[in-house]
User: What shape does this take?
Amino acid sequence: MTKTKLKVIISGGGTGGHIYPAIAVAQTLQKRLNNEVEFLFVGASDRMEMEKVPKVGYAIEGLWISGLQRSLSLKNLLFPVKVISSVLKSFGIINRFKPDVAIGFGGYASGAMMYAATLKGIPSMIHEQNSYAGITNKILKNRVQKIAVAYDTMQRFFPANKIVKTGNPVRLDICQAVSKRAEAIAFFGLNPNRKTVLIIGGSLGARTINQSIEKDLELLNLAEVNVIWQMGKNFVSEKAAQQDAQFCLKVSPFIYEMDLAYAASDVVISRAGALSIAELAIVAKPTILVPSPNVSEDHQTKNAMALVEKGAAILITDANAKEELVPATLQLLLDSVQQKQLSTNIHAMAIENAAERIVDELLALRK
Assistant: This one.
């Protein structure tokens, strides 16, 4: 008898925080089943998943969907039309692909697809990356069989009997980053006798973090530290280009070798996205978080506070970053005791093998 491949729809996107955990789960499931699995990703047609997912070898279909504008906008008049269109297209995708199970990772595309999947009776689950549930997952909570989460107390948002604490999937190379420090120092061309600050702001960069670093770049130079600065594709720093050769400043729009960037760093400055926090917990880095104020329901501040309450990170608000960020960073670099405390406390929040745990739950859904 011919063995039938498991067919899985994976939906989500809009940001790396939704896309990369989804890819990690697909790769883990593919390995678990010795490639006896077929995936179809479903995302928003104009977002980054349409580029990122095919790059790792998976098929993806796009939906005409986007979120509501926060300000008054004529674009919001199209929102109901987009939702109806996306749900109808999702029905068509399901009828053609005939999935055995479906999993959603958040974002508006996930909402349309998972709504259609549950109406069609497809065994379904969702994954919530943040400490404050997104609107899509809150809408889907009563329709799916299981809800994978990364934080405690998520019964505030979801039925307790559906919740499974799995954590957020982190790439294997990042899990192994701790052992790569010497390789990382050489790769980035850093001074091995200096402390290293890593600045990350996501694929698009973080404007306030970038402006704060640029403003006080001379202080970092005078402190004789290495700096790895991922500034995103939309920011250019003339001051960075003018620094002298003695300042070990490595600037890049995007860092592909994040395992080496983490391995080289002593202190990390980051936004407070769920995926970044999961990675920082695994690599146990002393971290200063600057939550983005431009996210739904201020969920990055809530993510950051979940760490601050456990002594696992320092929080500086976006509004105060230009005055406080670099001085706080330099102070932390001088305080080895605080570095150790932050490292220990953030690592205690790490959940290893998150992708494996999610795969366990997904496979258990099969009819």
